[in-house]
């Protein structure tokens, strides 16, 4: 059995002393680390979230909502295919999704390049990070099959709507956005 990573043990003990995690959570992480031997801080946070019943419930609700959206999309495709035929409807849905993904890719790479330029200049704009998150949500909506998600993805190309999507995606992540900025500044 591999030995536990001393750096992870030290960082987890510091977090426990700072009151970020309870002793039981740290013990669980150290036991997992002793078994696996290769846990990073991000994996540790994710594993700690798996111990949180609220996180599990919220994740299940998100998956349920996504499955309902996909079922609704299939219902709409079935209705439309009665007018235009099934193959044409599926081809149209695929073509709109594919075109949207290409447009989203251009938008996301442009946002990432803009953020990298700002980081090299020593500036941090939370607005650009929110816009990037909105562009990612737009791309995800365009990837979902169907016309309703394509519609909501297409309106995501408007800056006001994209900003709204980004705010929905990052409303509790302001400290994490600052961490991402610090990480990018260090490793640029």
How would you portray this structure in words?
There is one protein chain. With 188 residues, the chain is mainly α. The protein has two domains: 6-50; 54-186, no CATH class. It is 82% helix and 0% strand. It contains nine helices and no strands. The chain has helices at residues 6-17, 23-36, 41-50, 53-84, 86-120, 126-143, 147-154, 159-170, 174-186. Helix 6 (126-143) packs antiparallel against helix 7 (147-154). The longest helix has 35 residues, at 86-120. The radius of gyration is 21 Å and the shape is globular.
Kindly summarize this structure in a few lines.
The chain has 188 residues and is an all-alpha fold.
What topology does this entry show?
Elements lengths: L5 H12 L5 H14 L4 H10 L2 H32 L1 H35 L5 H18 L3 H8 L4 H12 L3 H13 L2
Helix pairs in contact: 1-2, 4-5, 5-6, 5-7, 6-7, 6-8
From the structure above, extract its key features.
single chain; 9 helices; globular
Mean pLDDT level? 78
The helix/strand order is HHHHHHHHH
Radius of gyration: 21 Å
Task: Give start-end ranges of low-pLDDT stretches.
Answer: 30-39
Give a short account of the largest sheet.
none
Strand-residue fraction?
A: under 5%
Distance N to C terminus? 37 Å
Number of domains: 2
Record field, number of beta strands:
0
Helix content: over 70%
Q: Specify the structural class.
A: mainly alpha
Overall geometric form: globular
Tally of contiguous helical segments? 9
